[in-house]
């Protein structure tokens, strides 16, 4: 079943995975402006007038106009949104790596709030909430009939304030009631450690304002502890993206020279750009270079990049660039497939429109939108199978998602292919419910273990599941 929409509780962004954001001011385009559709605008004015005069009770002008703007922008695609004062403030906090919430990534499915994944070390994660769980009530109010935004607002609040969720888990006879305390969650976007002598792991959880200096600090600490690294794992699993300069800088840290990292294409001139691994693209022209003191060995150390269905947007830019230049082996499962750029157009000092303005492409020109990055080595999430990764909503599942060239010319999937895929997903859900949440970088991290085997020339246990994009065709071949 395809989810209707997706949000991030605690991230403060109800419009899906964090965008690769650019910020510009809204400007009049003069001669480029299209003529206004007067008949349609008259209809809008007529409806506005009817509500003001005939509705059962008075409605504030500000509320009507804000909701009209919000609905108009939200109708475009899952990532465009009108940001009022509160949403704009929350988005800024998210990019700075701090926010208040429960720490779960959610989607609306069949009228309920479905857990896609709990954030590491969040209130939800510590309470045992798992991917696939359904929230049926919030503070005893039925979720059925709420919009996702309404459910999110009920779950948000002040730090240490309480909220009670009623959770339904498939396979359990009765729902269970779970009291939680909201927290201000501070995400340290970079973690790193030496896994064993000669091999290290560095994880980026989200691309934020401080990601590049944090990464530089962690990398230098790794090389201080282990000067002769024989292999480095860059872990981008469940990284929803974030700020575009961070993705450019992380890519540039591992690539020689000032290579092309990503290009964008859209309707306006500003949306057609090429970004290179140069300081002005990841640190601004007037800022210092956070990558200046990285060890030279980082450019040549054998590199594996771990990805999964939760790797989106900026993390896909990094994986795509390193894959195109054959700088790294991409290992894991197919990524989310968010290949669009959102630009903030300020309306006032504290409100804005987050508008999808371009698609982005890897250095070789591959389109990522609604496709994602297919790993060089497909490896399941656990030794038992794909597990939680099969529960994830991907870009291609979202209603009104931007299509790609392949989708526009594709034939619809056969009934048999859809049935087989649903059976496969149900089997994966049943297996996933029996597992505890995976600790990335822990001793039971199957994909990380396979990355180490790859470095050492040992056999790598590969996935038995085809890439999601190719699955319907593969199913037809098996018939």
Q: Mind summarizing the main beta sheet?
A: 7 strands, antiparallel
Number of domains: 2
Give the amount of beta strand, in percent: 15-25%
CATH homologous superfamily annotation of the largest domain? 2-enoyl-CoA Hydratase, Chain A, domain 1
CATH architecture of the largest domain: Alpha-Beta Complex
State the CATH class of the largest domain: Alpha Beta
The helix count comes to 13
Compute the separation of the termini in Å. 23 Å
- As for the CATH topology of the largest domain, it is 2-enoyl-CoA Hydratase, Chain A, domain 1
3D shape: globular
Fraction of residues in helices? 25-40%
Structural class: alpha+beta
- The unreliable regions are 1-20, 23-31, 424-435, 466-479
Please compute the radius of gyration using only Cα atoms: 23 Å
Descriptive account of the structure:
- Helices cover 28% and strands 24% of the residues.
- The strands form four sheets. Strands 1, 5, 6, 7, 8, 9 and 10 form a seven-stranded antiparallel sheet that branches. Strands 2, 3, 15, 16, 19 and 20 form a six-stranded mixed sheet that branches.
- The protein has 13 helices and 21 strands.
- Helix 7 runs parallel beside helix 9 and helix 11 packs across helix 13.
- It has 479 residues and is α+β, with helices and mostly antiparallel strands.
- One of its GO terms (biological process) is proteolysis.
- One of its GO terms (cellular component) is outer membrane-bounded periplasmic space.
- Keywords: Hydrolase, Protease, Serine protease.
- Belongs to the peptidase S41A family.
